[in-house]
Structure formats: structure tokens, C-alpha cells
Amino acid sequence: MTLFNEAVVLQESSLQGDLAVPAQARGLVLFAHGSGSSRLSERNRWVARALQRQGLATLLFDLLTPDEAQDRRKVFNIALLGQRVQEALRWARQRADISGLPVCLFGASTGAAAALVAAADRPQDIAAVVSRGGRPDLAQEHLPRVQAPTLLIVGGDDVDVLELNQRALRQLRCTKRLEVVPGATHLFEEPGALESVAALAADWFLKHLRAPARS
User: Fold this and answer.
1) Can you give the residue range of the structural domain that contains 62?
2) Residue 215, in any domain of the structure
């Protein structure tokens, strides 16, 4: 697989990111990591590589600067994190090589809430959303405004988070689905669990790709 990789910096906040673009990319997936993690999350990078093999470009980026990441108030400031996802989206729309690609969002844990906030605020720009072990409840007031098709993936043994996702599913008014990976816990560390996540995410994104609207 021919793959273009580049370390990038988002101009507005100096956040660092890693962009990977396969030849003839069909779409771009922005990754929003969870609390205590970063663009270097090995689980997200594993999923990103799987998506790249399906012809999807990926951008993994830090939601906070190193100093901000030490402030627990900012780590759980979903409004701020949602703004950072939108910053990454604006950055991608300014890159000539990827600006025409439909954009999807993949969020994990608190990053899923940030992705849903961004999807609610910029409905014309987001083709689809996938949440892995997410906390959509942290974006509760935004859920009814999400228009992008949204897939919630939760481990079957992640009981508390599963209940939160079931509640969030009822609040979403878009095309939506909840997928439970049997025997998986919150981090999907069990054999085959992350493979299931990647397969579900790829199928969802490829099914719902569409060109972004132009204002």
C-alpha cells in the first residue's frame, strides 16, 4: 500500500498531529483520543492503520498542549476539546491534498464526546462518527443536534459505559447504531476485540462517505 506520512502542526494552537494519506484516498478520519492519552495512543494508531488499508486517510492529533494536559479541568473540558476537533477540521479543509475528502470522526472515551460536539456544531462538514468505548453522555446537550450517522461501539463487559451509551443512543436523532463487542472491556484489550472495532468502524465510514458541503 502506497502511503504518504507527515508530522504536522495545527496552526491555531500548535497542536501536533500525524497525517497518513493512502493513494486515491476515499475519505479522511480525524481521531480524538481519550483522557490521559494523546495522538500516540497505540490502540487508536492500530485502528488508524486498519482504516488506511481500506483507503481512508487518517489524522491523529493531540487535543491539548503538554502544559494543558497537566490541567485536569482542561482534560475534561468537553467544550474545549470539541473546539480542538473543529480546529483540526479547519486545518484539513485548508490542505489542498485532502481538502476535497469527506471527513469522518473517530472518538475514544472523552474524545468521543468531543467528536460529537464537533459533529453537532458543524453538521455540513461531517460524514460519519464512530465512538469506541466513548462517553457520549458528556456531550448530552449536543446529542439531539448531531446529524452525521453515528456508531457507538462498546465492550460487552464495560457495563457502566454500556449503560451510558444506551441512554445516549436514545437521545441521538440521526442515523445511529450501538454495537456491543462480546467479552470486551473498556480498552478492548482482549484478543480480537480491537479487530472488531476496526472492522465495524471501516464498514460504517465507507457506507456513509459523502462529499463535504462547500460554503
Assistant:
1) 3-208
2) no
Burial of 79 (0-12, 13-18, 19+ CB in 10 A): exposed
Angle at the Cα of 89 (from 13 to 139), degrees rounded to 5? 90
Contacts of 103 (CB under 8 A, 6+ apart): 27, 28, 29, 30, 89, 92, 125, 126, 127, 212
Pairing relationship of beta strands 126-132 and 103-108 according to DSSP bridges:
parallel
In a domain, 36, yes or no: yes
User: What confidence tens digit (pLDDT) does each residue in 135-153 have?
Assistant: 999 999 999 999 999 999 9
Split into its structural domains, the chain has a count of 1
Ranges of beta strands (E only) in the chain are 3-10, 15-22, 27-32, 56-61, 103-108, 126-132, 150-155, 176-181
Pairing of strands 56-61, 15-22: antiparallel
Q: What's the CATH number where 172 sits?
A: 3.40.50.1820
Query: What is the model's pTM?
Result: 0.94
CA atoms of 198 and 134, how far apart (whole Å): 15
Name the pairing type of β-strands 150-155 and 103-108. unpaired
User: Is there a domain that residue 34 lies in?
Assistant: yes
User: Per residue in 89-118, pLDDT tens?
Assistant: 999 999 999 999 999 999 999 999 999 999
pLDDT in tens, 24-61: 999 999 999 987 777 888 889 999 999 999 999 999 99
Nearest to 61 by CA among 23, 32, 94: 32
Residue 146 is assigned to a structural domain of this protein: yes
- The count of C-alpha atoms lying within 13 angstroms of the C-alpha of 201, restricted to the half-sphere facing its C-beta, is 36
